[in-house]
Amino acid sequence: MQSTIRAMALLMFLVLAGCATAPQDPSDTTTGGADAGEDTDTGTDAETDGMDEDEGARTLTAEECPPDCPFSRDAIEDSSSLLADRTVYFEFDSSSVQEKFMDTIRRHAAYLAEYSDVEVRLEGHTDERGSREYNVGLGSRRAEAVSRLLQAYGASNGQIETISYGEEVPAVEGSNEEAWAKNRRVEIVYPAAGGSN
Asked: Which of 3, 70, 163, 179 is 20–30 Å from 12 (CA)?
């Protein structure tokens, strides 16, 4: 009963928070905001908007826990594990986490909550458009957005390091939408597991 009430309250919060933001034009691929250094970022997912640093951290309920969690300690070293998915992609000039990546974040949060001695590094990246300084800032905001969500689902701040590479470490070379889409990302890296994704 309590989990149903909690789920309804979260749903209402998400609906109300979603109404408070202006919609973005997903077809906008211009670099006007990025090149001019304007911050056209819409912020993080509604689940963490307005959340104070000390509030919101909690353990996932059975209904929220993605399939097959809790995880075994060596799950981060298993390439067939649900934790093998370690990349969160972003829309152009945005640090808002898309809903389709929330299960990935929840899984990693559940793992980090289960093993409080494990540390993770969130590496923020951008595509090549925009100035170097702007892209470093955008990569940082992306990494921080993922960090806040991990903490909202049970990971602790002390487990998480964030870093931004901006446009300097592309996943894919190229100056086209396909390459840019692969480069707008945060990589979830477990240094103790060899740092590989």
From this structure: 70
Place of tokens 């960090």: 147
Contact 129, 31 (CB under 8 A): yes
For residue 86, give every residue at least 6 positions away whose Cβ sits within 8 Å of its Cβ, in sequence order, or none.
Answer: 104, 108, 187, 188, 189, 197
pLDDT tens sequence across 68-80: 566 788 889 989 8
Question: Of 180, 179, 197, 178, which Cα lies nearest the Cα of 189?
Answer: 197
Residue 110's CB is within 10 A of a number of other CB atoms, namely 25
- pTM for the predicted model, two decimal places: 0.68
How are strands ordered across the β-sheet holding 120-125? 87-89, 185-189, 120-125, 160-166
Interacting residues of 71 by C-beta distance below 8 A, sequence separation 6+ = 81, 82, 83, 107, 110, 111, 114
Among residues 27, 22, 56, which one has the least CA distance to residue 41?
22
Residues 6+ apart with CB under 8 A from 179: 127, 170, 172, 173
**Which class would CATH give 86-197?**
alpha beta
Domain ranges of the chain: 86-197
| Coil, strand or helix at 106 | helix
